[in-house]
Specification:
- A hairpin with a 7-residue loop joins strand 3 and strand 4.
- This protein starts with a strand and ends in a 6-residue tail after the last helix.
- Helix 9 runs parallel beside helix 11, helix 9 runs antiparallel to helix 12 and helix 12 packs across helix 14.
- It has 554 residues and is α/β, with parallel strands linked by helices.
- The chain folds into four domains: 205 residues, no CATH class; 95 residues, no CATH class; 90 residues, no CATH class; 126 residues, no CATH class.
- The chain is 54% helix and 8% strand.
- It has a six-stranded mixed beta sheet with strand order 1-8-3-4-2-7, sandwiched between helices. It has a two-stranded antiparallel sheet with strand order 5-6. Strands 9-10 form a two-stranded antiparallel sheet.
């Protein structure tokens, strides 16, 4: 393995007996094969055995082993090996031959030395949570015959018990000779490709390549393995922290959990050139030990992240006035602001005056970067400077990266006069305007607030619109500017559609008071002309310039 990588095909027997220390990292899913997968496996193996195929391919496995005779960590293939172990245990306990049962048991436990005091050497070790149950109902001699006496208390343990019963049921009507033939076939004729690497980076890279198809482990699944091992938890600690980890995953969803860890990584890894798992290991863990991260920091980050993405309202530890600014940030077409927001909610001063000042400036900065800096990398560099300023307690110093420069303020003010090219941009600006208007309020981007172009994007032929707007160039100039936007409920939007202006007003004011403040000043306009749009646009720009401390555009 001179280049750190080796691939070879091996029989199942060679894989199990070639090491007495195959270990699975404690991935989030634990043992996840259900009855469907187990049934398909045993049926396929029985069919292959009876057809006298020369071999049967069971797929690939990836192991990490730095040096010969050291622990083999299974990065990929653990579900198949655990399921094969269950099948071997069932065949062992159903065998009528002591010699055969002993051979099958040697696939589960390495033979002890001459001295009876030699410790047991189990071939396969699962994660912290599953291993004790796996030893008790699978690997121990006679275990599968007594499996029904146990009551699993986790999903992975229930899967193990279910599959013990699947295999017992599948083999119950077979003869001893048929079971012996099946056992020999699996041991000697079933093969896997074993990919061996010397470090975890190589193992995870091989794992990701091999899992391009099928259900992938998420980044947080893989990272959990590393963190739990580094933390050195006892079995009881690991089980308790796994419950918390799973609860966070359930709250955030798989993609949300991955993004949370990505945001945490970005707080420490300023370059962010490596994949998430490697970057987290190389840049976060030198600053926060795995144990401290799991026991203390993770829950705090998760609570803050839920607020940032709108999954929950602020609690006593997070002031509710921050929701106003977070609503505006969430409406933007980029998420680079999440990392500094997360950093501040966890490590910053949450006293009302200080927190308001931070989020007010972060919101302004984020809108400024959205509309004046198209380069994502450039935006990322600015946000990283903000994170550094939080660390260094220099947020409110002169020339703070959280502040806009005079030139940036001027460019943002001028940008407000122009067109907003995408739906997300137009809706973000409309929601922001609704919050700054008299009688307006901050609206969650999840609310039933749809963007409406007052001048339709595609007016009907022969409509009054085309008489008031005969120039196509003028329509293009003003159709997507601030003056032509309002907010409606989805039902109102469907009703208004491409109607004439007078008919739209009836929809807007059907209940006398419009659904959103952004429609209120349309009462002042009897006709919707280019001049009306420009006047309304300039009024909105003046409000935003005052809100964001910008100079009025010339």
């Amino acid at each position: 393995m001179s280049n750190g990588f080796k691939a070879e095909h091996q029989t199942v027997k060679d894989i199990f007996t070639g090491s007495d220390d195959l270990r699975m990292p404690p991935y989030q899913r634990g043992y996840s094969w259900g009855e469907k997968e187990a049934t398909e496996l045993v049926n396929d193996l029985r069919e292959a055995c009876s057809s006298e195929r020369p071999y049967y391919f069971l797929g690939a496995m990836v192991i990490v082993q730095a040096r010969p005779r050291e622990v083999m960590e299974i990065v990929d293939g653990q579900q198949r090996l655990a399921t094969l172990s269950i099948l071997f245990a069932v065949l062992r306990d159903m065998s009528e031959s002591r010699e055969e049962a002993n051979k099958l048991h040697e696939l589960l436990e390495a033979p002890r030395g001459f001295m009876s005091s030699d410790r047991q050497r189990w071939r396969l070790t699962l994660n912290h949570i599953d291993t004790p149950f796996f030893r008790e109902i699978v690997q121990r001699r006679g275990a599968t015959s007594e499996a029904d006496l146990y009551e699993p208390n986790t999903e992975s343990r229930q899967n193990m018990l279910n599959n013990v019963n699947v295999f017992r049921d599948a083999l119950s009507n077979t003869s001893a000779a048929e079971r012996s033939a099946l056992a020999r076939f699996i041991m000697n004729e079933c093969v896997m490709v074993r990919v061996s690497v010397i470090d975890r980076d190589g193992g995870y890279a091989a794992f990701r390549v091999l899992n391009e198809r099928g259900k992938k482990l998420s980044a947080h699944d893989i990272l959990k393995s590393d963190l739990f091992e580094r933390a050195g938890f006892t079995d009881e600690e690991a089980e308790a922290h796994a419950v918390t980890w799973n609860e966070i995953g359930a709250r955030l969803g798989s993609d949300g959990f991955d993004d949370l860890l990505k945001q945490i990584r970005s707080l420490f890894d300023k370059a962010s050139k490596e994949d998430m798992v490697t970057g987290f290991r190389n840049h976060v863990l030198p600053h926060i030990s795995a144990r401290v991260f799991i026991e203390d920091r993770l829950q705090r980050y998760a609570d803050a992240y839920e607020i940032i993405i709108g999954l929950r309202k602020t609690g006593t530890e997070f002031a509710p006035f921050l929701i106003h600014y977070i609503n505006q940030l969430r409406a933007l077409d980029h998420v680079g602001w999440r990392a500094p927001a997360l950093k501040y909610l966890v490590d910053g001063d949450l006293e009302e005056k200080a927190a308001t000042a931070f989020f007010r400036k972060l919101e302004r900065l984020s809108f400024g970067l959205q509309f004046t800096i198209p380069d994502r990398d450039a935006r990322g560099r600015r946000y990283r400077r903000v994170i550094t300023a939080i660390d260094d307690k220099q947020l409110h110093d002169e020339n703070s990266p959280l502040d806009l420069t005079d030139d940036e303020k001027k460019r943002l003010a001028e940008r407000l006069q122009g067109r907003f090219a995408t739906f997300r941009q137009r809706r973000a600006m409309s929601l922001r305007l609704n919050a700054v208007l008299p009688g307006g309020m901050s609206i969650s981007p999840d609310a039933d607030a749809t963007l409406e172009h007052i001048l339709p994007r595609n007016p009907k032929a022969n409509s009054e619109w085309l008489k008031l707007w005969p120039k196509a160039s003028e329509r293009r100039e003003l159709i997507d500017c601030l003056g032509n936007f309002t907010l409606l409920t989805n039902a109102e939007n469907q009703e208004a559609d491409r109607q004439e202006y007078e008919d739209k007003l009836k929809v807007f004011f059907k209940n006398k008071t419009p659904s959103y403040a952004l429609s209120e000043n349309l009462r002042d306009y009897k006709k919707w002309t280019p001049a009306a749009v420009r006047t309304r646009r300039d009024y909105f720009i003046a409000l935003l310039c005052k809100e964001w401390d910008l100079p009025l555009p010339e």
